Amino acid sequence: MRPIIFFKMDFSHSSLFGYIEDLQELTIIERPVRRSLKTPEEIERLTVDEELSDIERAVYLLSSGQDIQGTSVVANLPVLMRQNPAETLRRVLPKIREVLHVAGVEMQLTAAVSFLTVLQEESVSIHTYSHSFLHIILQNLEHRDAGVSNAWLETLLAVIEALPKETVRHEILNPLVSKAQLSQTLQSRLVSCKIMGKVAKKFEAHIVKREVLPLVKSLCQDVEYEVRACMCRQLEHVARGIGTELTKTVVLPELVELARDEGSSVRLAAFETLVNLLDMFDADDRSQTVLPLVKSFCEKSFKTDESILVSLSFHLGKLCNGLYGIFTPEQHLRFLEFYKKLSTLGLQQENGHNDNQLHLQTLEQEKKYISVRKNCAYNFPAMIVFVDPKNFHLELYSIFFCLCHDPEVPVRYTMAISFFEVAKLLNSDVYTIHKELVTLLQDESLEVLDALVGHLPEILELMTNRGENNGSESKLLSIPDLIPALTTAEQRAATSLKWRTHEKLLQKYACLPHIISSDQIYYRFLHRMLTIILTNNVLPVQKAAARTLCVYLRYNRKQEQRHEVIQKLIEQLGQGKSYWNRLRFLDTCEFIMELFSKSFFCKYFFLPVLELTHDPVANVRMKLCCLLPKVKSTLKIPTDKHLLQQLELCIRKLLCQEKDKDVLTIVKRVSIFLFKQHLVLGLSLKFQKRFYENDLLDQEKERQEHLLLEM
Q1: Per-residue pLDDT tens for 305-335?
Q2: May I ask which residue range the UniProt record assigns to the signal sequence (predicted)?
Q3: Which helix (H) or strand (E) holds 547?
Q4: Where are the domains of the chain?
Q5: pLDDT tens profile 215-248
Q6: Nearest to 340, CA basis, from 298, 303, 368
Q7: Whose CB has fewer CB within 10 Å in the chain, the N or C terminal residue?
Q8: CATH class of 517-710
Q9: Rounded to whole angstroms, how far apart are CA atoms 604 and 256?
Q10: Taking a C-beta distance cutoff of 8 angstroms, is the pair 573, 583 a contact?
């Protein structure tokens, strides 16, 4: 018997004061619960007559309801427009317009979304929409809350695309002249910039030149740097709208000026717009104007203007390939060296000392350097194209090695995502990155593994089929360290809590019969799949392992190994003590019916499946009954007539002896379905044709099974 322990209570002044504080906290926690209860008067005020129509209820709630009820009506506007557009426009929309003048942020945001939905669903003609909705959108565009203003702006930009040109010109473009003036608020001018970009793509070049470009120039020279940066980012859309000639004479000079702006955000916007417009500049513009600017950005990024470093690293691949034709060999080498420098930024320096020991970096700097290296990883495939894949080992392999071994997970994750692209570009030289594949497979971060697994079958196929000199010897040499890496990756995924990564990995491992030998799969992977089915607790993982095991069995080339695996499946799953294992046996049988020929299933699995009609657990019998139509479809009559008799006998026994009402219901449905299927098959030419096509596919499966055993 355990001794009873008495705890001594401390009733000192300080302790009592602490208890009182705790009690006060509890009362504070409970207060909102009491406040949330409605009084009878409030409930009566919130109650609406059930006999009112949807339109009448909406009008009533907007007129005398609370804010939350009004917001609900506004959210329901697209539904009302679908049901009764005429009455909604006549009675509900004017009320919404009135309410929005004094509405809170939530209702404003809801209205912006609802107006956009009505446009997208095309509940009314665009003419009616512009007449009824456009003025409300324009009225709320300059709301004092930035979030609300942006929401209405997004709606307006979508509306501009659908509106007729004349409507855009009179209702939107003409008022912009006054809205873009310096006398207007900062918010008004920022909105004008974004509208300019959308409007420029709507009209012909001569209209844009006459009516839009003067405003664009004015906003590019605005006194506020936010406006200049915003307009600078819209210059890409303006350029696309006016064509190459006007871009060269009007947009490019503005970009050059903005690239030298005193505001770092303006310079950044100018740089990114230049990169995005590279395809619109001819060779002369690129060499005489763009290239000097880019070189200036690169030089300043390390010395005086680190703010542009992250953007520069992100766009470097596009920049190098966009300017490729005009580079001299010296410039080509300089940009390559610049990329290499960025790829190791914040890591080991050339003198062998760690940069952190020489300079106390702030947390912000470290984050920036990680982003730069991550962007370099993102651009790595583009840089391979830049140097030519033939020069990869000489020029870029050392950087590839560094990025794959980077101490930060986001960098390695990005390399894992782009690994397949790199492998494709290297083609026959893909053997040079085999060690890095093994490294990433064994990475300590499951995020990296998950990213790599997405294209693992394609990567492994490239690794084994395009080895050095495309010879079989290279293929065999590449396997020994690859197989341990694959098994380690699976075990790490299995011991983690991220079961989706484990499931994905098992699904992708189904490609291994095309990569490695049947014996290697049998000894290193097949039994592991069976263990997962038997011991793992996650159903999707078990099913993935079951299907992959069936694929391995399908391509196994030794009869004795096949028999051993089949026997284990029947004994450990089909006849297992746990009902859960018997359910997984039925899942496995479904995969076998999908992957193998009918004769294979009937020879090894037909009778073990029927034995489960006597299973003591109703769930197992229920799952089996659902599977019976598929099981019957594997029979070939008259060859399998004795098996058909066994199946019919099992169904009759279930109909007569089954005590569980749910199982009995399914058995009755299945028996009726099988009877109807038999009748339809005898009468319908369409079904006969389908069964004939399935028989041809089955014959091909059977032929391949015999061929694999012969090989």
Answers
A1: 666 889 999 999 999 998 988 899 999 999 9
A2: none
A3: helix 539-554
A4: 517-710
A5: 899 999 999 999 999 999 999 999 988 888 889 9
A6: 298
A7: N
A8: mainly alpha
A9: 76
A10: no
